[in-house]
Amino acid sequence: MMFKSNHRIYIEEDNHSIYQQLVKRGHEKPDDFPFASMKDVFMLAVSLGRQHNAYRSIQVQKDIFAGDVLDPKTDIAILVAISFEKHQKFEMLLDPKLILETAQSYANGGISFIEDMLLKQPGRPLNNLVNLIA
User: Fold this and answer.
1) pTM recorded for the entire structure
2) pLDDT tens across 23-38, in order?
3) If residue 65 lies in a helix (H) or strand (E), which one and from where to where?
């Protein structure tokens, strides 16, 4: 399954500043901005949201990137697996809208964990990210 550019990825508008604090393209201090793209933050937020069962629907949406940015071999496979685990229905595997809604809701729940672990802890966000995954 491929997502197209007309499939948009949304986050909660109030959380956009968290994404911006972690992604600055071409910035000279990668220690302060450890993610290369909004997609990378989104995928971690989805994963942490699923891990902590933090599923929160988006109330006020903000468009952050197009679906064709998602890699079919890694990103989409993860999102499909997470969505299937949530809904337990084979027909949803063919429904990009449901897959994205599920991912967006988990990302909405997971972004607070990223904020707590990377931005609210002492130290630089990159070092905190390394400590998180180490």
Assistant:
1) 0.91
2) 976 566 666 788 989 9
3) strand 61-66
